[in-house]
């Protein structure tokens, strides 16, 4: 496997990113958070409709790329370093089932839940009461179990949209913090 350079170490917008972007593009509020921002594409989509948009990622290359279009970039795991509550938190999760994490942009470990559950736990603290958490997952992952785990963190969760692709179905989950 060819090693990526630091400047190329980010998730490039793909069909899943565009699907999530289309869903959130009309959202409005005071503050929004893009967890695992990758290129910063989703944060940039939200920047016109929110007073404050923050992006997080664990990879410096991703933050370097995101900072080209987004002002507030924080290097941290999910929302672990943040002490703020947001109206909207979005995440294009690394949802693919895998034996190990080789590519942190897509590998989600067992049933696509190992990494994603930890991200959701951290992000849940950053959502204000009655705020929303919107994440993207896949039919290849155990998304029903992920929704159950999200609900156990104090959210109501529902499937907001699905998109059929050749080899999978993208699943957008919308959660309201109770």
> How many distinct helices?
5
Total beta strand runs: 9
Q: Report strand %.
A: 25-35%
Strand line-up of the largest beta sheet: 3-2-1-4-7-9-8
Largest sheet composition: 7 strands, mixed
- The whole-angstrom Rg is 15 Å
Structure in words:
- This protein has 178 residues and is an alpha/beta fold.
- Helix content is 24%, strand content 35%.
- It contains five helices and nine strands, in the order H-E-H-E-H-E-E-E-E-H-E-H-E-E.
- The strands form two sheets. The chain has a seven-stranded mixed beta sheet, with helices on both faces.
- Helix 3 (60-66) links the parallel strand 2 (50-57) and strand 3 (72-75).
- The model has no long low-confidence stretch (mean pLDDT 90).
What would a concise description of this structure say?
The protein has helices spanning 15-24, 41-46, 60-66, 114-124, 143-151; strands spanning 29-35, 50-57, 72-75, 86-92, 96-97, 107-109, 127-138, 155-164, 169-177. With 178 residues, the chain is α/β, with parallel strands linked by helices. The strands form 2 sheets. It has a 7-stranded mixed sheet with strand order 3-2-1-4-7-9-8, sandwiched between helices. Strands 5-6 form a two-stranded parallel ribbon.
């Amino acid at each position: 496997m060819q090693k990526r350079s630091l400047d190329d170490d980010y998730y490039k917008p793909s069909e899943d990113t565009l699907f999530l972007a289309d869903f959130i593009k009309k959202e409005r509020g005071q503050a929004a958070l893009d967890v695992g921002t990758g290129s910063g594409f989703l944060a940039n989509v939200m920047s016109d409709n929110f007073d404050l948009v923050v992006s997080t990622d664990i990879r410096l290359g991703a933050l370097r790329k995101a900072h080209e279009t987004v002002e507030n970039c924080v290097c941290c795991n999910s929302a672990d370093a943040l002490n703020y509550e947001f109206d909207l938190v979005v995440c294009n999760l690394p949802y693919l089932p895998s034996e190990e994490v080789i590519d942190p942009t897509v590998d989600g470990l067992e049933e696509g839940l190992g990494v994603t559950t930890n991200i959701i736990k951290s992000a849940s603290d950053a959502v204000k009461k009655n705020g929303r958490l919107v994440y993207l997952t896949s039919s290849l992952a155990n998304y029903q179990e992920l929704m159950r785990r999200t609900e156990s963190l104090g959210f109501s969760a529902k499937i907001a949209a699905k998109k059929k692709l050749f080899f999978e179905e993208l699943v957008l989950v919308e959660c309201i913090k109770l």
